[in-house]
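Q: Hi! First time doing this. I have a protein sequence and I read that you can turn it into a structure. Is that right? Here it is:
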Amino acid sequence: PQQARSRDTLHRLLDAAETLLADRTFEDLGIHDVVKKARSSVGSFYARFPDKNALLDALYERHQREAMNTVQSVLSPERWAGCRLAEMVEAIVQFTARLYRKNRGLLRALVIRGHLRPDWRYQDPAERSKTAVAKVGSLIASRKCEVGHPDPRMAGSLGFLMVMATLREKILFGDSTSSAVRIGDERLIAELTAAYLAYLGVPSPADSNRRRPKSGRKPGGKS
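A: Yes, that's right. Below is the predicted 3D structure, encoded as C-alpha cells:
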C-alpha cells in the first residue's frame, strides 16, 4: 500500500507539471505551483526529485515511453494494409498534428531545453523523431508503385521532416514565431497533407474525387 501511494503521488506530480506547462514555460513553472496542483507537498516533491530539472527528465521519460508505443502502433505496416497511400499520408499528418497539440506544453519545454543546453541528452525528443522519420520513409518506400518521386524512401522521410518542422513551429511556437499565417489545426493538416502528397507525386483524395465521374454520367458525355 505504501508503494502504491508513492506511485500515485509521483503520477500526480507529473500530471500536475504537464498540465501547468500547457500555458507557461518551464522556467516559469514553480515547485510550489506543482505541489499545489498535485495536492501534495514540497517534501514529497524533493523525496522524488532533487530539483526541477529532474522533474523535466521524468516527464520526458514518461512521454517517451508512451509516444514510442503509439508510434509503433500507428506506423505498423499491417495497420495500413489495403489502404491507399494518400489516405495513409493524410492520417499520419493528422496523427502527428494531434500529438503535438496534445503534448504542446511538454514538447515546447523539451525543445527549448535542448536549445539552451546543447549537452542535454534529450535534445528535441531526437530518438523518437528519428524512429518516426525512418518508419514513415519505409512505409512510403513500401508503396513505391504509387509514388511519382524517383526516390520514394528519401522523399517519404524528408517530406515527413518538413511536416514535423511546420507542425512544431505552428503548434508549439505559433503564437510568437509564425503568427503571419493564421490557420486552425484542421486547415493546417489539410494544407500539409496536400503539400506532402504533391512532393511525393501522389494524387490527393480530393483530386481523385474531382476526376471521378458522377454517378449516372460518363466522362465527357451526358447521362
